[in-house]
Specification:
The complex is a heterodimer of chains A (313) and B (180).
Chain A: H1 3-43, H2 46-49, H3 61-78, H4 88-114, H5 119-122, H6 124-128, E1 129-137, E2 144-147, E3 160-163, E4 166-175, E5 178-183, E6 190-199, E7 206-209, E8 215-221, E9 224-227, E10 257-260, E11 273-283, E12 286-295, E13 305-309
Antiparallel strand pairs in A: 1-2, 1-13, 2-5, 3-4, 3-13, 4-5, 6-7, 6-8, 6-10, 8-9, 9-12, 10-11, 11-12
Chain B: H1 3-24, H2 33-44, H3 47-63, H4 71-86, H5 95-119, E1 126-128, E2 131-133, H6 140-163, H7 172-179
Antiparallel strand pairs in B: 1-2
Helix pairs in contact in B: 1-2, 2-3, 2-4, 2-6, 3-4, 4-5, 5-6
The chains are: A alpha+beta (313), B mainly alpha (180).
């Protein structure tokens, strides 16, 4: 074999060996990493896996917060986010009544302020909570919020999270550099609710119990919750979804609201708004049961800040 | 590959994902910007850094989601393997390549997520008084919408990233081998 060809063969052999060895080593590492991630994803139960997850949400805040603000501003300008099923006329009338009610309450409040009595009562829930800025939403397909709060601020797992519109969710994980809030619309969230109806004509306007039993509301994703445990008869409807027994209207109807009554919740949260009824239909797997879809009054994934209930009483 | 540029890309992709997703979601499905970043790395970088880069992007995304840790790392690792395998036969700059790679990568990710949702549903079967409520599983329709949405965005996002690929110095490793 000529010298040139020998050198070339040696050169190729050297390159081939080096490359194959390095690929072999890297491939071992890569296969190991993939195996570990598969074990983490499919075999280890979620409650154990989450314990070893570092919380780094706050690190992304310098970019995600400004982006969030700009996107929220643009969205509000282009398509205001209103999940209100009421007719415009009803809203006007309700506003009028609420204005009157507000005037009356403000007068009372002035009186109470003078007597220095009501401040503690008014500020009760506020004092139990801690404000946390939202950094962003879930990076995957689930329903959660990353918030700029940490264990140093007193945030812990399972604490409830609120906003002006009602219940937002529960802290799922909290760490030194951020926390993740599981929204009430996430499929892993469930809570007991009671249905109520706003009675505008009464003085003062109030919410009354519609008469259905306490039910379990579960998140289903897509910004919705569902109640599947009530039979059609329990909500005053027949198989055709029309009111039972020739009554003018069923016990439960669209627009009725669901409020929190879960015995595991702190007492200060009882009666907190969860959402309003959007649709009522049959459960596809049990025709005698209702599938009641609920929607929170605000889009929870677009909240700029939330209140974390760090104290229970 | 220049790792500082990679870290910046990962940071911006994840921050944009969590900052923008609620505002650009269509029918509950937000596009997966991190997947596009992973495809960009996989289609340009040499094999080993590409695979590692995809895996780490998934791992970082796992930290800011409620999904089980490891799911996105596994998904993007598989996407990386697939895209790296096609490096020699695709035209990296072509929008159709970007669309098809995002479609294939999105389908792989969706498959892993839906499969996980079926094996470990987020809300398991639950007893409510005398009634047993079946488990709630993630919607395959939402995942498919996400895949399509991401694929449609891919030519724009990957096109823009391709213009910046000099910052990543993808060819450095290969050049060294050739010159030697």
């Amino acid at each position: 074999m000529p010298i040139g060809e020998c050198r070339l063969a040696a050169f190729h052999s050297a390159i081939g060996n080096t490359t194959r060895m390095s690929y072999l080593r890297f491939q071992h590492v890569f296969v190991g990493l993939m195996g570990l991630s598969a074990v983490g994803a499919f075999i280890i139960p979620p409650r154990y896996a989450a314990k070893f997850q570092p919380q780094i949400q706050t690190i992304f805040a310098p970019v995600s917060r400004p982006v969030w603000r700009v996107a929220a501003w643009a969205t509000n300008r282009l398509s205001p986010d209103i999940n209100d099923p009421r007719a415009t006329q009803d809203i006007r009338e309700e506003n009028q009544r609420l204005r009157a009610e507000l005037s009356r309450l403000l007068t009372q409040l002035d009186e109470l302020n003078r007597r220095d009595l009501a401040m503690g009562e008014l500020g009760q829930k506020r004092d139990l909570c801690r404000l946390a800025k939202v950094i962003g939403a879930d990076a995957g397909g689930r329903e959660s919020l990353a918030i700029a709060g940490s264990t140093f601020d007193g945030l812990k797992e399972e604490q409830y999270v609120l906003c002006a519109g009602g219940l937002v969710g529960q802290i799922q994980r909290a760490g030194a550099a951020g926390a993740q809030v599981r929204l009430i619309t996430d499929p892993a969230f469930h809570i007991r609710v009671l249905f109520k109806r706003f009675v505008p004509g009464s003085d003062p306007p109030r919410y009354v119990d519609v008469g259905t039993p306490v039910a379990l509301a579960e998140g289903v994703g897509g910004g919705m919750m569902v109640v599947r445990g009530l039979s059609l008869s329990a909500i005053g409807r027949g198989r055709d979804l029309k009111p039972l027994g020739g009554q003018a209207e069923p016990l439960l109807d669209q627009g009725d609201v669901a409020v929190l009554v879960d015995p595991e919740c702190p007492p200060a949260l009882k009666g907190e708004m969860v959402g309003h009824v959007v649709t009522i239909g049959h459960r596809h797997d049990a025709q005698l049961f209702a599938e009641i879809r609920l929607q929170p009054d605000v889009n929870l994934k677009r909240l700029p800040e939330v209140m974390v209930m760090t104290k229970e009483n | 590959m220049r790792w500082l540029s990679y870290i910046l890309l990962a940071y911006v992709a994840i921050a944009l994902q969590i900052g923008l997703s609620p505002f650009i979601a269509y029918n509950g499905a937000a596009p997966n910007l991190v997947l596009l970043a992973a495809i960009f790395i996989a289609v340009n970088a040499p094999r080993d850094p590409a695979l590692l880069g995809c895996f780490v992007l998934g791992l970082l995304q796992d930290l800011v989601t409620q999904q089980q840790p490891g799911l996105f790392a596994l998904s993007y690792g598989l996407v990386g393997l697939f895209v790296v395998g096609t490096q020699q036969v695709v035209y990296r700059e072509h929008p159709l390549t970007h669309f098809s790679l995002a479609l294939a990568g999105g389908l792989v990710t969706a498959l892993v997520l839906v499969l996980h949702g079926w094996v470990h549903p987020p809300s398991a079967r639950i007893a409510d008084g005398s009634t047993t409520l079946p488990a709630i599983r993630p919607s395959a329709t939402v995942e498919l919408t996400r895949v399509l949405y991401t694929s449609i965005l891919a030519p724009i996002v990957l096109g823009a990233l391709q213009r910046m690929k000099r910052l990543f110095a993808f060819q450095q490793g290969r050049r060294r081998v050739r010159s030697w």
